[in-house]
């Protein structure tokens, strides 16, 4: 098992600082470096976290610079603008693509070995930008993808069925955004395929109920942003989960975003599919058995991301 290592977080806003807190609390790092263009913000977050250090496993936390990416196991990028009310994730693209490009150019001056984990939105497009700008192998670049969306999906299904969320296995795939798809055919509760028969009530949910659950997943970020201005706790826990899978070499199956090599004809684009995550990053992307309708929706989602990538000057 890899030892808890050095983790760098670039961007210490809501998402970056919540992620730092989650990683610190989980004892996943021995060194945690915070970098932000607003140096005072990174320093303030480091001070605040350090004051709780006596309550967690030993970890050194400091506000650093890109030189600190040397020897890092993982560099997490959460820097950039966030979604404003009414703004789609894709609206953010041009702004955040330039920010991402300059950050990655700085990171790769100091490391060729770190796993680069993208969180900034639109996460699939920017995961691709990280891949292109870094020149790193595909396995070494991933995005948080639909790990968060899948957690929202599992939570809502668990609520609907009144069952422990840990017994619900379900994936949101494709874009982390408006074109994402619910892979209903893969959904199972307690080992029973949800589409055949619900383990709990013995019936099938109507298409209307399923559509309502999926709409709540897809619109979750808009709903939260409309109320509190940003989302950060659940994404921080999703990132912590990905980091854990890497640091502990878990071979966990997570729907992270990565640049895929010909899945249903989809290639040269980053999007989420169930993948094995371990110390090497994305070890394997699964060619999962979807229905024809789900495949078409996945291809559509890939095309939407690709169109945005093609419109960028990177
Ligand atoms: P925020 O609170 O505005 O923080 C962004 C931080 O980035 C600020 O502290 C900035 O100073 C810093 N920053 C900006 N430019 C640079 C730069 N060039 N170098 C270093 N630091 C820089 O935003 P918040 O933390 O709420 O969101 C960050 C990103 O995460 C946004 O793009 C969100 O849309 C995205 N999210 C992604 C999610 C996902 O599931 N992938 C979920 C929630 C938010």
TrEMBL record:
Residues 6-143 form the Lactate/malate dehydrogenase N-terminal domain. It catalyses: (S)-lactate + NAD(+) = pyruvate + NADH + H(+). Substrate binds at residues 83, 89, 121-124, 149-152, 231. The active site is at 176 (proton acceptor). Keywords: Allosteric enzyme, Cytoplasm, NAD, Oxidoreductase, Phosphoprotein, Signal. GO terms for biological process: glycolytic process; lactate metabolic process. PROSITE patterns: L_LDH. The modification Phosphotyrosine is found at residue 222. It is found in: Cytoplasm. NAD(+) binds at residues 11-16, 36, 41, 66, 80-81, 96, 102, 119-121, 144. Beta-D-fructose 1,6-bisphosphate binds at residues 154, 169. Its EC number is 1.1.1.27. Allosterically activated by fructose 1,6-bisphosphate (FBP). GO terms for cellular component: cytoplasm. SUPFAM superfamilies: LDH C-terminal domain-like, NAD(P)-binding Rossmann-fold domains. It is an enzyme of class 1 (oxidoreductase). GO terms for molecular function: L-lactate dehydrogenase (NAD+) activity. Pathway: Fermentation; pyruvate fermentation to lactate; (S)-lactate from pyruvate: step 1/1. Residues 1-22 form the signal peptide. Belongs to the LDH/MDH superfamily. LDH family. Catalyzes the conversion of lactate to pyruvate. Homotetramer. This is L-lactate dehydrogenase.
């Amino acid at each position: 098992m890899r030892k808890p290592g050095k983790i760098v977080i670039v961007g210490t806003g809501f998402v970056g600082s919540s992620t730092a807190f989650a990683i610190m609390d989980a004892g996943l790092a021995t060194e945690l470096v915070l970098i932000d263009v607003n140096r005072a913000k990174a320093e303030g977050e480091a001070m605040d976290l350090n004051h709780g250090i006596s309550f967690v496993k030993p970890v050194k936390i400091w506000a650093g610079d890109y030189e600190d990416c040397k020897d890092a196991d993982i560099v997490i990028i959460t820097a950039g603008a966030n979604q404003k009310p009414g703004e789609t994730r894709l609206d953010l693209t041009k702004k955040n693509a330039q920010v991402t490009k300059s950050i990655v150019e700085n990171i790769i001056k100091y490391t060729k070995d770190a796993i680069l984990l993208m969180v900034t939105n639109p996460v699939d497009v920017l995961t691709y930008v990280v891949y292109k700008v870094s020149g790193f192998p595909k396995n070494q670049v991933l995005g948080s993808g639909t790990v968060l969306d899948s957690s929202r999906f599992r939570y809502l299904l668990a609520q609907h069925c009144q069952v422990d969320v840990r017994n619900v296995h379900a994936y949101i795939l494709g874009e982390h955004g408006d074109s994402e798809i619910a892979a209903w055919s893969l959904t199972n509760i307690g080992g029973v395929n949800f589409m055949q028969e619900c383990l709990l009530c013995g019936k099938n949910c109507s298409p209307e109920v399923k559509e309502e659950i999926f709409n709540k997943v897809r619109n979750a970020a808009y709903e939260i942003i409309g109320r509190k201005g940003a989302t950060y706790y659940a994404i921080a826990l999703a990132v912590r989960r990905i980091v854990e899978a890497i640091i502990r070499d878990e071979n966990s199956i997570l729907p992270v975003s990565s640049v895929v090599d010909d899945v249903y004809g989809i290639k040269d684009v980053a999007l989420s599919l169930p993948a094995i995550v371990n110390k090497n990053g994305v070890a394997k992307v699964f060619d999962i058995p979807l229905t024809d309708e789900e495949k078409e929706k996945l291809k559509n989602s890939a095309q939407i991301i690709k169109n945005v990538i093609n419109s960028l000057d990177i």
